[in-house]
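Weekly modeling sync, notes
Attendees: AB, CL, MP (scribe)

Item 1: holo prediction request
CL wants a bound-state model with pyridoxal-5'-phosphate before deciding which constructs to order. AB pointed out that an apo prediction alone won't tell us much about the pocket. Agreed to run with the ligand included and paste results into these notes for async review.

Input as submitted:
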Amino acid sequence: MIPFLDLGAAYRELKQQIDDAVARVLDSGFYILGPEVEAFEAEWAAYCGSKFAVGLANGLDALTLALRALDIGPGDEVIVPSNTYIATWLAVSGVGAIPVPVEPDPATHNIDPTLIEAAITLRTRAVLPVHLYGQPADLDSIIEIAGRHGLRVIEDAAQAHGAAYKGQRLGGHGDIVCWSFYPGKNLGALGDAGAVTTNDADLAARVAMLRNYGSREKYFNEEPGVNSRLDPVQAAVLRVKLKALDDWTERRRAIAVDYLEGLKDSSLILPHVPDWADPVWHLFVVRTTMRAEMQAHLAEAKIGTLIHYPIPPHMQGAYADLCLKAEAFPIARRLAQEVLSLPMGPQLDRSLVKNRVIPEILRAC
Ligand SMILES: *Cc1c(COP(=O)(O)O)cnc(C)c1O
């Protein structure tokens, strides 16, 4: 069996260091925030090339608290990609604002900057690009449009740890950048975890306050905050895994090269990488109109695949009240019908990709 992703293998590779890190937290007596969380925040900010990082409970909270820290709420509109994981939209609607979808460039799967201006209204407050599948969105174009219209830029980088845009790592381009360390992400904890990074000291301080009951000083609550603190056990695990991240990204890149080379003459539509992008291949997503057949053939050959994502947010029951027509966003809809994610991960054996996965795909084409 070649699984889509093997999280147990990732743990086993670093088992001794992770076990030691967890034991260190247990022995420390600090079980909420404290030195381990602060150390991870400093290391993550440095890695991203941004001034501040604030550790949070998960990626959805990172998006939610970023929006709240920018005072975005009821009556506001936020531009989001029409094709993304639903968390991006849920954060916007969760603070009472309206997600306004913009279609992607089908070649990159990322929001098409040339379509953003047409979606801006007097109520628009922010643009929320997603670096989908680990490939950076076209940030300069997005930031330029946002600047001209007085909008904030909030990045959903939940799939793009270590990815670079025009040679600079993600983490400090927009006003605030939101991260998830869900176990399956490129930098994944052993449970839920998340963070924001920003170069804005006030924004960082506001998120840090909001995550801790709206309190800067114990028992003084300035705002109705939430409990969304990064767990120190997870912070300790993330510190171990952060040291391995670049190596693990290189292994993903090697597999991506194998796929791109091995499948170049197939009937599949392969990922397109713009020349300014250094993607980190959170997912390796191909497109085919014969997806069901391809997936069944690979399952038969004991090769795991997944679909990211089968139903675009505007067609989900969760957004029935927005009354968006299925055919209003035809690119998102078509991508949802055609995308297929191939096995990808740092612990995936390259020889299995070359000798089993690629030949099986070619056989099914
Ligand atoms: C994983 C993910 C999130 C949410 O992260 P959680 O930690 O699961 O809350 C948000 N946006 C995107 C694009 C994601 O992939």
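Recorded for review: The two ends are 21 Å apart (CA to CA).
Action items: CL to compare against the apo run; MP to circulate these notes.
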